[in-house]
Design a protein that fits this description.
It is a single chain. The chain has helices at about 20-30, 65-75, 95-105, 120-130, 145-155, 170-175, 180-185, 200-210, 230-235, 245-250, 270-280, 285-295; strands spanning about 5-10, 40-45, 80-85, 115, 135, 160, 185-190, 260. It is of the alpha/beta class and about 300 residues long. Strands 6-5-4-3-2-1-8-7 form an 8-stranded parallel sheet. β1 (about 5-10), α1 (about 20-30) and β2 (about 40-45) form a beta-alpha-beta unit. The longest helix is centred in the N-terminal third of the chain and has 13 residues, at about 20-30. The N and C termini lie far apart (about 40 Å). The mean pLDDT is about 90.
């Protein structure tokens, strides 16, 4: 591993798992020896429930935006809004709540905030109206063609691009990219979806439609194991899974340093297991788990 390079994780559930992070982040700061020295937290992403511009997942996050911004500011972490709705129309851009959230995040007073976007319409709007916010191209675009992904990485609008998780399976194609392109890639590590799924875009569009409050055909997942919901154990068996060994041995040496963890809508206990796997030294995992589980203010289940 190149000594200078670190892995930067982008964690789920800014609004949904605020209580978990309120316990985990001080532990991470005060006992850095419990955690790998080759990784850092780059951002925490999410959106409050019921946001018109929301997409990707249906979540129940209801934490106060000012509280979560104070939390990320205190720990020097970039907050991100997940506004990845794919079906936005011109009239949706006037939504007061989403605009107010962008304004609040743009002037948060801490590390620069970002917005994860899936709509070209919203991308143009935010670049014009909220240039203080950096933009991240969402995996909900479902760009599965590698050449198209390379073109997305070349776009100046985006600080980072989250490719479709199936492109994790072709590391040799990533090696052929420029250093700048690899530096903008934010790979989705732990997706549980079947790699052969042809309906992923329709799934995201269904979530986008529900966020808009519009009727339409409900998407029913027919992928193998889809009826079981998310299982981290099953994600780890996927050929697209990015393990800690792969981060150290494959991705960091080629200059890919940004890694996104999926987890919105899964519950704090599952997200904790991801934090233990990806960030915590094995000999300290029980200690960290105990600190979190025994905190009387946190309901993990």
């Amino acid at each position: 591993m190149t000594e200078m390079l670190k892995a930067w994780y982008h964690l789920p559930g800014l609004f949904e798992f605020e209580a978990l992070y309120r316990v985990f982040l001080p532990l991470y700061r005060e006992h850095r020896e419990y955690f790998y020295d080759w990784c850092e937290i780059g951002s925490i992403y999410g959106a409050p429930s019921g946001c018109l511009w929301g997409g990707g997942r249906v979540t129940d996050g209801d934490a106060d935006p000012r509280r979560v911004l104070a939390l990320t500011r205190d720990h020097g972490i970039s907050p991100r809004l997940t506004f990845s709705n794919l079906l936005l129309r011109e009239e949706h851009l006037a939504d007061r709540r989403c605009n107010a959230l962008c304004d609040l995040f743009a002037h948060s007073g801490g590390p620069q905030a970002g917005v994860i976007v899936g709509s070209e319409l919203l991308t143009r709007y935010l670049r014009e109206r909220r240039p203080e916010l950096y933009l991240v191209s969402s995996t909900t675009k479902t760009i599965t063609d590698f050449d198209a992904c390379a073109r997305e990485l070349d776009r100046e609008e985006f600080r980072y691009v989250v490719p479709d998780f199936r492109l994790n399976m072709v590391p040799d194609r990533w090696r052929a990219l420029t250093e700048r392109q690899r530096g903008k890639a934010e790979l989705l590590c732990n997706e549980c979806c079947w790699t052969g799924c042809a309906d992923r875009r329709r799934c995201y569009e269904d979530v986008s439609r529900r966020a808009l409050g519009e009727d339409g055909p409900e998407h029913l997942c027919r992928a193998p194991g889809g009826g079981e919901g998310y299982r981290f154990s099953r994600a780890m068996e996927s050929p697209a899974f990015i393990s800690t060994d792969a981060i150290l041995d494959t991705w960091l040496p080629m200059g890919v340093t940004q890694f996104k963890l999926e987890g919105r809508g899964l519950g704090s206990a599952v997200v904790l297991e991801m934090l233990l796997y990806y960030m915590t030294r094995p000999e300290h995992r029980l200690r960290v788990r105990e600190e979190i589980y025994l905190d009387g203010m946190l309901d993990l289940f």
